């Protein structure tokens, strides 16, 4: 006879230590909440791991932890972010993302209703990106030992034949393309921080970029040297990293860099530079000059690249400076962010 | 962005740059000190140096409150924060200011001191309300601009009858420091630099007005132009200074008329004088002890004065002897003249205070302008 088990009280219930104990309560949480939200044939088999076919070509693998605060923010939540971030890290290799893992560290007392909403967002984000969450893990820690919920995701993908995007590939004369406005995610998060709350219409740009990347690869092929998603540290950190890895410098035009008025205003108020603020749905592509216009056109034809822009070029520079002609008429360096601008942005 | 873009217009900037070039005499040096860190930051952030003729030199003054805070005051705060009953509330840019022997509030926090970053004085009052069993101390710092908010907070604490709230007061005054730069005898053999005029403070002047600089301009025969923090404000102020120098005038002129009046903010001044009084002297990093340049709480508000409440001892700490912050704050040396600049001293690991805040002369030059050093070296 099957033992009676009370259904999860999603509306009023919350996670307690038994949900991480390995017993029936945990099994119920996993099948009732996570499998429901992620729904796929691999999870349905209920193994501790999932097997999948390895196709031809090179695989890429990546992993990322998500500790964003607050968990819900304009334009998304920690669940959708945990899918977008990992999908994007795979996509930046020009790869097609295939499978993800998801591991949850939950603080006791966390509401089922919030967990369900987060899991459903993850499921939706995965379906939108065409990837499957095929394995996972759940741990519960005592109250005060985690701030609500931490998620860690890993992912694998496959790189199309002949493509080798890497940070040391930039060459002098290459163009710098970005896929849209900068700083949206960071400002959206800041606007909801308890001691900083301000009103803005800015919503996070959190999104999976793999489809945009596929269109760019079609258009630019091997002319695309490398791609990066400018998350923490913003565009400034990304370009400084590339400058060092490729042993060159960059020269940017401030006027060409798109920033939403709401983001510019918030940065002005808080004394931040939009070039240092995090993005979760934008990419930087360094491309050979001869394909720059083709790739840019392909980006602009995609909904996630409508505001794409050519913002500058790679130049020879032993000091690896990222320099910028300011829209005021002078010149300056775009340096790394020093110190911590805002902890727990993703 | 309205009210900002208008003051960053490239065409107008080019027009002003042209006027400055036309009106300066090529053989004559024009050495202007911008007092405020906000001006220093704007010069570097917008690349103003590229738009000025070579003989117009901007000297970065000591007007960055984080930069001039002596290491001893940081040590005092760390010692206080290490007490288990204390929550210390600070503005974020104070966290990395070096105390003695590499200590900082950031490191003290990592070791377990309860130090909280706040964005407003109101946050500190809220933390005091939420933690009635703990002592909450606000690390008050800044020039005349940030003193009124501290005064308002003390009023608020009084109204709410908060018994667990106090202020570690480090507020300083602008005019005595400007005077000190011009009149004091050489300190630590640093020497003095010739200054032909001052770009006067923006936000500070919204509070104190333009009148306090009149004596200064008259006594020292130096022109002062109060300027806003936007790049066009700066360009216009520089042009106004050039004209005064050319015409041998030394007046207080107000470029920042949209925000500054002659008398300033009377209400704010009243609040400040109700609660604070002058210290006989206060130590500034780089300037040493400057008479009547700092504020403390009046005796009637002693219970809100952390220095009295917790019997804090004044600590005097020598700066790193190789650090040139003192000379840089006085305009005698440039950041690149310091051996530590860009080697062991960077914004990540600041040795001196000028490298800490983005308004500090060294940090601004490092972050935005250091490519010019290589350009100049190559050119020579």
Automatic annotation (TrEMBL), chain A:
Entry-linked Pfam families: AIRS (PF00586), AIRS_C (PF02769)
Domain PurM-like C-terminal: 171-323
Gene3D superfamilies: PurM-like C-terminal domain, PurM-like, N-terminal domain
Any one Gene Ontology BP term: protein maturation
Domain PurM-like N-terminal, first and last residues per copy: 47-159
Family that this chain belongs to: Belongs to the HypE family.
Name under which the protein is recorded: Hydrogenase expression/formation protein HypE
Organism the protein comes from: Bradyrhizobium forestalis
From TrEMBL, chain B:
This protein's name: Hydrogenase maturation factor
Molecular function GO labels: 4 iron, 4 sulfur cluster binding; carbon monoxide binding; iron ion binding
InterPro entries: Hyd_form_HypD, HypD_1, HypD_2_sf
UniProt record similarity statement: Belongs to the HypD family.
Organism: Bradyrhizobium forestalis
UniProt KW Transmembrane helix keyword: no
Record's signal peptide: none
Keyword Transmembrane: no
GO biological process, one term: protein maturation
Keyword line: Iron, Metal-binding
């Amino acid at each position: 006879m099957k033992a009676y088990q009370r259904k999860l009280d999603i509306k009023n219930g919350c996670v307690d230590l038994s949900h991480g104990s390995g017993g029936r309560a945990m099994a119920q949480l996993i099948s009732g909440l996570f499998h429901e939200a992620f729904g796929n044939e691999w999870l349905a088999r209920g193994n501790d791991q999932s097997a999948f076919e390895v196709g031809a070509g090179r695989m890429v693998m990546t992993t990322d932890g998500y500790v964003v605060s607050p968990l819900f923010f304009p334009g998304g939540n920690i669940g959708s972010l945990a899918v977008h971030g990992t999908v994007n890290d795979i996509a930046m290799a020009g790869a097609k993302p295939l499978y993800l893992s998801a591991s949850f560290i939950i603080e006791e007392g966390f509401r089922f209703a919030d967990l369900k909403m987060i899991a459903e967002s993850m499921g939706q984000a995965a379906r939108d990106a065409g990837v499957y969450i095929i394995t996972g893990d759940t741990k519960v820690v005592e109250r005060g030992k985690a701030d609500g919920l931490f998620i860690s995701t890993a992912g694998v993908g496959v790189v199309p034949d002949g493509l080798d995007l890497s940070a040391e590939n930039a060459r002098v004369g290459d163009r710098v393309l970005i896929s849209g406005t900068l700083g949206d995610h960071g400002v959206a998060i800041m606007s909801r921080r308890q001691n900083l709350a301000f009103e803005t219409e800015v919503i996070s740009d959190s999104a999976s970029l793999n489809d945009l990347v596929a269109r760019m690869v079609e258009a630019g092929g091997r002319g695309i040297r490398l791609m990066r998603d400018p998350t923490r540290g913003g565009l400034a950190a990304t370009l400084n990293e590339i400058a060092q890895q490729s042993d060159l410098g960059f020269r940017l035009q401030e006027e060409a860099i798109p920033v939403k008025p709401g983001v510019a205003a918030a940065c002005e108020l808080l004394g931040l530079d939009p070039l240092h603020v995090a993005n979760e749905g934008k990419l930087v592509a360094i491309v050979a000059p001869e394909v720059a216009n083709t790739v840019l056109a392909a980006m602009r034809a995609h909904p996630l690249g409508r505001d794409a822009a050519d913002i500058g070029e790679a130049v020879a520079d032993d000091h690896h400076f990222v320099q910028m002609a300011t829209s005021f008429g002078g010149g300056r360096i775009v340096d790394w962010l020093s110190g911590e601008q805002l902890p727990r942005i993703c | 962005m309205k009210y900002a873009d208008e003051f960053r217009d490239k065409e107008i900037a080019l027009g002003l740059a042209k006027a400055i070039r036309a009106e300066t005499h090529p053989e004559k040096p024009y050495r202007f000190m911008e007092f405020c860190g906000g001006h220093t930051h704007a010069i570097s952030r917008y690349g103003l140096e590229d738009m000025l003729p070579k003989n117009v030199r901007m000297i970065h003054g000591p007007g960055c409150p984080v930069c001039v805070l002596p290491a001893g005051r940081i040590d005092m705060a760390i010692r206080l924060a290490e007490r288990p009953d204390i929550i210390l509330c600070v503005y974020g840019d104070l966290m990395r200011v070096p105390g003695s022997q590499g200590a900082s509030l950031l490191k003290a926090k990592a070791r377990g001191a309860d130090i909280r970053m706040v964005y407003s004085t109101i946050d500190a009052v809220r933390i005091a309300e939420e933690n009635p069993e703990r002592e909450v101390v606000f690390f008050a710092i800044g020039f005349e601009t940030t003193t009124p908010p501290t005064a308002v907070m003390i009023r608020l604490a009084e109204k709410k009858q908060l018994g667990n709230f106090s202020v570690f007061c480090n507020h300083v005054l602008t005019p005595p420091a400007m005077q000190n730069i011009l009149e004091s005898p050489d300190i630590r053999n640093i020497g003095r630099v010739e200054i032909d005029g001052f770009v006067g403070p923006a936000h500070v002047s919204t509070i104190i007005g333009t009148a306090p600089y009149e004596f200064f301009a008259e006594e020292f025969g130096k022109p002062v132009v109060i300027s806003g923090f936007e790049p066009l404000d700066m360009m216009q102020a520089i042009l106004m200074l050039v004209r005064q120098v050319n015409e041998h005038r030394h007046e207080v002129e107000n470029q920042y008329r949209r925000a500054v009046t002659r008398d300033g903010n009377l209400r704010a001044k009243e609040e400040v004088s109700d609660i604070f009084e002058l210290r006989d002297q206060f130590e500034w990093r780089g300037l040493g002890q400057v008479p009547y340049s700092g504020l403390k709480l009046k005796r009637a508000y002693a219970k809100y004065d952390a220095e009295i409440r917790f019997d804090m001892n004044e600590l005097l700490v020598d700066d790193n002897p190789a650090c040139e912050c003192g000379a840089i704050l006085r305009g005698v040396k440039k950041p690149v003249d310091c051996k530590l600049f860009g080697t062991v001293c960077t914004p990540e690991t600041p040795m001196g205070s000028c490298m800490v805040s983005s308004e500090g002369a060294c940090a601004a030059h490092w972050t935005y302008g250091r490519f010019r050093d290589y350009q100049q070296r190559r050119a020579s």
